Each structure stands twice: as structure tokens, then as C-alpha cells.
Amino acid sequence: MPHFTVHITESALTDTTEKALISELTDAVGSVFGDGFRDLVAVDLVGIPAHRRAIGGTTITRAAPTVTLSLREGAYRHPQVPDAAARLVVAITDAVAGALGEQVREEVTVSLEAVPAGRSGAGGQVG
Questions:
Q1: I need a labelling partner for 97 at 20 to 30 A (CA). Which of 7, 23, 28, 58 fits?
Q2: Which distant-in-sequence residues (6+ apart) come within 8 Å of 12 by Cβ?
Q3: What is the pTM of this model?
Q4: Annotated domain spans of the chain
Q5: Looking at residue 120, what is its pLDDT?
Q6: Is the confidence at residue 42, as pLDDT, over 90?
């Protein structure tokens, strides 16, 4: 299951931006792996109070989203999805900028986590 965790300054999260981030990130995975993946995407939005968020040792108030996508390792090198990792980084960055505005694009950080086969599961079953 593709699982996003987005750490973002809490003040950037409104009802509108939350819905937009969830929708845009779900679409980002679908744009790379196909629409069938959309139903599998999970998104967790983690709002961090500005006084608990810093870059370069200085607290910040801007959004500065950090997006982590956790996905089974094989998906990143599937032969039917060439350049999956690079395409995901672009699609995820575009998704966040689409949801929050172009002014955040340069501060969007994307991390792709690869879960090895046999190291994840759902419903009590290792997948």
C-alpha cells in the first residue's frame, strides 16, 4: 500500500489545503502507477506547531512540507514503470505545489522509502 506521511507547519493546514493535499498526492501515485493504485493510497497529514519546526537551527512559520512515501521496494523498479522513483519525486512535488501554491515548490522535500518484500503486511498477513 502506498503510504504518505506529510510533515508540515500546522498553520498551513486548513480544511481546503488538507483536502487538496490528500487528493493531489493520491493522484500523483495514480499518474505514475495507474488509476488502479488510487484506491490503495493512504495519506497522513502531520501538522507541527511553528515553534517546534526549524530549518538550519531557526524556527519557521512557512509550510516547508516534508513528504515521505513508503512503498514496497519492487514498485520502484518495476519493468512496466520505468524511472518510477524520478517520476514520483516530480509528481509528488507538483502535487504539493498544486495544493499549497507554487511558492512552496522549492521547499518541498520528498523521501521515497522502499519496504523490502516480506517486511510489511495488512490484516495480519505478510505481503
A1: 58
A2: 47, 62, 63, 65, 100
A3: 0.91
A4: 3-118
A5: 77
A6: yes
